[in-house]
Write a structure and sequence with these properties.
Layout: H1 2-55, E1 71-80, H2 83-99, E2 105-113, E3 121-129, H3 133-146, E4 150-160, H4 162-188, H5 193-225, E5 226-234, H6 244-295
Parallel strand pairs: 1-5
Antiparallel strand pairs: 1-4, 2-3, 3-5
Helix pairs in contact: 2-3, 4-5
Length: 296
């Protein structure tokens, strides 16, 4: 009977061991299958990302919180041409600006100085929408080339206004919050008469600062939205390697040299004549005294 019990217990223990090993094997099989599926999904995602990167040379940055810089662009063009051609080309450029419409181009200033036979200088200042400034510059160049003008220089500059605009916006927000607090004090009427009067004065000062800061912000936003385009016109002879150029320059400056020489002689005479007169008068008086002493 005891042997039967021991034999049954051994059979039961073997059965439990076999079941446990089967469960462990099934769990290990499931874990291995999950790992294989996860690795396959990761490989598929990596392949998809590589295909997307291959299709686009520049990765997409739409999901990144990027703050674009606020730039105020400055365009400067300079042309050289005969004196009698400056006025017509300047008017053609001004008409070209007006044709774009006030929302795209506005004339800020226009000037011309000098004689037709002498050196003439002209300048045209415009405010052009920043998105159209480069294309408008190309139109200006086409008009100048049609007029036979020679382009001397073309420059594009910019001024960073991001920090100034952010600081101004922060200042407006802080002053607005301060004004709201002061207005709350005035509404509750808590405090002495002097405190309430001082609060009203503070509200007036804060409102003035807010208006000034908003004006600065609007001005900077306008500079970012509209680029400053300056066109300069001038006459002049380009520098060449002509042998007679130095000789012509020397002959041309001869009149200036003679003028300076005559001016120097006039100044010297104006100083020397009074001094010479005093010396002559002194000697004359001295001679008279000597004659009187000899005769006496």
């Amino acid at each position: 009977m005891r042997k039967f019990v021991i034999t049954g217990a051994a059979v039961s223990l073997l059965a439990l061991t076999a079941c446990s090993e089967q469960v462990d094997y099934e769990e290990a099989t499931v874990d291995a299958a999950d790992y294989v599926e996860a690795e396959a999904a990761a490989d598929a995602m990596e392949a998809a990302s590589e295909e997307a990167a291959a299709g686009s040379a520049i990765p997409s940055l739409a999901e990144l919180p990027v703050s674009l810089p606020k730039l105020a662009y400055l365009y400067d063009y300079r042309w050289r041409m005969p004196a009698d051609e400056i006025g017509p080309l300047q008017r053609r450029h001004a008409n070209l600006c007006e044709q774009q419409g006030p929302a795209s181009c506005q004339i800020l200033g226009m000037s011309k100085s000098g004689e037709e036979a002498d050196e003439v200088y002209g300048e045209l200042q415009m405010a052009v929408a920043s998105r159209q400034a480069r294309a408008f510059g190309a139109l200006l160049e086409d008009e100048a080339e049609d007029a036979g003008a020679e382009q001397v220089s073309a420059e594009i500059g910019s001024q960073e206004l991001s920090k100034q605009m952010v600081d101004t916006e922060a200042r407006i927000a802080a002053r607005t919050e301060l004004r709201d607090r002061l207005m709350a004090v005035l509404k509750t009427r808590r405090g002495t008469v002097e405190e309430l009067v001082e609060a009203e004065r503070s509200v007036a000062r804060v409102n003035e600062e807010i208006d000034q800061a908003r004006s600065w912000l609007k001005e900077m936003e306008g500079r970012v939205a509209y680029s400053r385009v300056t066109v300069r016109y001038e006459t002049g002879v380009p520098v060449t390697n002509d042998f007679l150029a130095p000789v012509a320059g020397a002959v041309g400056s001869l009149g200036t040299v003679l003028g300076y020489l005559v001016a120097f002689l006039i100044l010297a005479g104006a100083v020397a004549l009074p001094i010479g007169g005093l010396v002559w008068a002194g000697r004359s008086i001295n001679r008279r005294f000597e004659r009187a002493a000899v005769e006496g």
